[in-house]
């Protein structure tokens, strides 16, 4: 049982590690998006103020900067969407592979059980010993 618990613990830790790194990445990118949108808002306000003060030349530069920042924020949003879609596809592919391996093992086991039941019994005992199920209880020494 110790071996099985160690394997399950490692699997859970790996999943949490991947999720944590994905959340960190998304938080960093969303903060960059928020910064770019706040800067775009400030430049839009400056552009409106300049538009009221003088009608054209400095305004086009400020509006251009604001539009450039908005475009940069939209590009980052699309990058996040692409990365999240890729992560979902990879997780689905891992799940499909795991299910296929499980189904293949079950099919092999049932065909082995039908053809040669004594070999199947020996295999089951060997697997039980390998997983630590046959360790038994340890006796305590009495003082």
UniProtKB/TrEMBL annotation:
Q: Which residues cross the membrane?
A: 29-52, 59-83, 118-136
- List UniProt keywords, sorted A-Z: Membrane, Transmembrane, Transmembrane helix
Q: Does the keyword Transmembrane helix apply?
A: yes
* UniProt name for this protein: Membrane protein YfcA
